[in-house]
Amino acid sequence: MKINFLKKLVLGVAILYAPLQSMAWGTEGHRVCGQIADSYLTPKARKAIQEILGNESIAIASNWADFIKSDPAFSYLSSWHYVDFDKAYTYPEMQEFLAHDTNTDAYTKLNFLIGELKKKDLTKENRLLYLRMLIHIVEDVHQPMHTAHTIDKGGNDVKVTWFNDPTNLHSVWDSKLIDFQQLSYTEYATAINHTTAEQRAEWQKAPISQWLFESSQLAEKIYTDTKPDARLSYNYNFQFIDTVNQQLLKGGVRLAGVLNQLFG
Which of 2, 67, 81, 168 has the fewest C-beta atoms under 10 angstroms from its C-beta? Predict the structure, then answer.
């Protein structure tokens, strides 16, 4: 009995701890994107998605891909969350790179997931898995450090401090900046979800390669403005929070666009 209890305790700690190690946007940011996406669904898409997710909202479903990292059976999904680059690309260079990309990464798997979800003969289990992953990865690639440099693992190896707490650059962009706003995910989504129909149409017509290019360009600026061992606090928040909010908003709007195309 004691052994079973200890096993359950260890598993519970792993489930809580694993998502903190390598998430894009963190729990809060993903839910903000999901909440925004939900606000732009067509009625038909909303109904189809509800049939797949059941009582799980898009906002809550958006975290599944990070939480499942605690289960070794799903370790094959780990590289689906990002696509790193060895240098700063121009847009034509990035298009050329992606055209020949055969890696298991966010770009190739987004295309895979979209293609699979168009099929009518998917099993119920795979349709749920693929939808959860699609939601998550669309949001992931709008976090700039998920399209950053291979050599430092997307900023994970760039050590900084956040209000005197040791951390790394990737974690600052995953969660530190967002959590600093001290808003619930519904409050946060309401605060930043202000777009025009023209703006949404422009963002949604952009191909995935454009999403990645925009994020990678932001990553290059972040690298330039954030040196290793930098001490980050109020001024860093002031400098970058608008960028964070814009990317959260774009991620939500573009996710809605993909879901409407698939199910609406």
Answer: 2
Segment 126-159, tens digit of pLDDT: 999 999 999 999 999 999 999 999 999 999 999 9
Alpha-carbon gap, residue 95 to 101, rounded angstroms:
10
Cβ distance 249 to 195 under 8 Å? yes
Q: Provide the whole-model pTM.
A: 0.91
Q: Give the separation between CA 78 and CA 70, rounded to whole angstroms.
A: 11
- Distance, in Å, from the CA atom of 30 to the CA atom of 27, rounded to the nearest integer, reads 6
- Alpha-carbon distance of 206 to 25, in angstroms, equals 21
Residue pLDDT, tens place only, 101-115: 999 999 999 999 999
Determine contact, residues 216/90, Cβ cutoff 8 Å. no
State the DSSP H helix or E strand holding residue 185, giving kind and residue range, or none if neither. Answer: helix 185-192
CA contacts within 13 A on the Cβ side of 218: 23
Would you call 167 helix, strand, or coil by DSSP? strand
Read off the tokens for 193. 């979800």
Token readout for 46 is 């909303």
